[in-house]
C-alpha cells in the first residue's frame, strides 16, 4: 500500500514492478512484465467478479492514447458533447477563454440568466480536466466565451512524454486583489514532473499572500512522498514564485519579528525551506506557468504558457503514437470493473 495514497498498491518482484491504483469500483493497473500482469489478472479473477476491459483507452471522461513515445490524454468527445448539449456547437470560435479587455463588474441592470442552465454549464466545465481555462463570473457572457474557446480547441489535450526527466518542480502565482468587486485575489499553483503536467488548482482566496505558496509546497511534499513509493528520491524541490516579497518572508528570519500576525502556515513553509525539502526560486513573470490560471492573457502569451504545460493538439502528436503498436517494455494500462 502507498505510504500517503492508500488507494495505490505496488508490487516488486525480480526487478519488475506492478502498479495498481484503485478508483471506487475501477482498477487501472500496469506492469513492466507480462507475466506479472497476467498473474495479477488470474488472482483477482478468482477472488472477485469483474470485467476485464483491455488496454486503457477511456476512463472517467478522459480519452487516452498510449505509445512508445508517451501518452496523450484529451476530452475531445466530451467537449463536443457539452457544446451540443448547450447549443454552442455553431457558435463563433474564440482563441482565448477570456478577453483581456473585459472587466468583470457587478451587472445590476443586466438580464437575468437561467440559473439551471448556467449551473449546468459551470458544472460541465468543472468536469473538464484540461488546464487553460479561466473562471467566469455570475453572468452568462464570460461562461459562453469559454464554450466558444472550447469550440476553437476541441482536440487539445495533455502530452506525457516517456522521455521526460523525473525532476519535480512547482509554480505558484496570484493576481493580488484582482477581483474588482471585493478586491480578493485568485491564487493558483501547478506542479510538473519533468515536462509532464501533473496537478494544478485555481481558486479565489479569502485573503492575500503566501497561502498560495503554502498550498504549492504541501502538494509538492505529497507528490514527493508518493513518488518515493515508486523508488524515486528527490532532494531540494524548486518552487518558482514571481514575488520577491514572498521569498524574502520565507527565507529571512529577521523579517519574522515584523510578521508575527502572519498565519502559522507561512512558518510551515520556512521550516521546509530550512530542512531542504524545497527551494524558493524567483521566476520572471513571463515564465510563470501558473499565470495562465490567475489572469487573462493576450493570445501569444496564453498559447506560450499553454504549450509549456504540455497542452498539444491531437493532430500534432506523433503519428506513431496514434497508429503504431505499443512497443515499450511496459504492457500498457488495463482497466477493470470490479
UniProtKB/TrEMBL annotation:
A Pfam family that the UniProt record links to this protein: RVT_2
Transmembrane segments annotated in the record for this chain: none
Residue span, Reverse transcriptase Ty1/copia-type domain: 7-99
Cited CDD domains: RNase_HI_RT_Ty1
InterPro entries documented for this protein: DNA/RNA_pol_sf, RVT_2
PANTHER family (alphabetical): GAG-POL-RELATED RETROTRANSPOSON, PEPTIDE SYNTHASE GLIP-LIKE, PUTATIVE (AFU_ORTHOLOGUE AFUA_3G12920)-RELATED
Protein name: Reverse transcriptase Ty1/copia-type domain-containing protein
Organism encoding this protein: Paspalum notatum var. saurae
